[in-house]
Specification:
Elements: E1 3-7, E2 21-27, E3 41-47, E4 52-57, E5 67-71, E6 76-80, H1 85-88, E7 96-97, E8 101-115, E9 122-125, E10 157-162, E11 167-171, E12 186-190, E13 195-199
Antiparallel strand pairs: 1-10, 2-8, 3-6, 3-8, 4-5, 4-8, 7-13, 8-9, 10-13, 11-12
Length: 213
């Protein structure tokens, strides 16, 4: 069984490299702080030598109608996903939600998710098959504390999305996280497209859960 974990990530550019191109991509949008602005958001799709017919869906959310788009060879398309933001972001910790995005293409493409307000920008590069696996080590920066002046307060978080039904995930947190004690492994079960957020309980660097398996 394979899954994908989205951890806090800031990229300043998108490089065309092996592992960032493919025909199948899974993603779950992070919970960006709405009080500091978290919209608009976009999916940026780029095709290469061949044209691509692309479908964007949420397999665990039957209320989300798939979005389809064609991208010509060596062309790109920017899809405004802001109208579906409530369905995209995983905002509740220690709960199974249905927010996982699945992007499937007939030709090789690259994809990145963009949070694009003036004061809270971020880019997440999707990694196709190279992002999938069944063993992950979560990293976390330990130099700066999370700012408490924003609403809702931003906490260190990581999000899992399952690519197959009946995916059993064992999480061994290095520190206390919402709903669970550090050093005590626990398991969750996810179906295809379901998501789960691990979130720190405090704002300090000592509250981070880097090293969690």
């Amino acid at each position: 069984l394979k899954l994908l974990i989205i951890n806090s990530l800031l990229l300043t550019c998108l490089a065309t490299a092996y592992g960032q191109t493919g025909k199948k991509f899974w993603f779950v949008a992070p919970d960006a702080t709405s009080g500091h602005n978290h919209q608009p958001v976009f999916l940026n799709l780029s095709a290469y030598n061949d044209s691509a017919y692309i479908s964007i869906s949420q397999p665990a959310n039957p209320m989300f109608l798939p979005i389809t788009v064609g991208v010509p060879a060596n062309g790109s398309q920017r899809i405004d996903m802001t109208p579906w933001l409530v369905d995209l972001e995983t905002t509740i910790a220690d709960s199974v939600l249905n927010n996982g995005l699945y992007i499937q293409s007939t030709g090789d493409i690259s994809v990145y998710y963009e949070i694009a307000p003036n004061n809270n920008t971020d880019i997440f590069s999707l990694k196709a098959d190279n992002a999938l696996g069944n063993h992950f080590l979560i990293s976390a920066q330990t130099r700066w504390v999370s700012a408490s002046k924003y609403t809702p307060t931003p906490y260190n978080q990581a999000i899992i999305v399952a690519t197959e039904d009946n995916t059993i995930v064992t999480i061994d947190p290095t520190n206390d996280v919402v709903g669970h004690t550090g050093g005590v492994p626990y398991t969750i079960t996810l179906n295809r497209g379901q998501t789960y957020m691990i979130r720190a309980i405090g704002l300090g660097t000592a509250d981070r859960f880097g090293g969690t398996v």
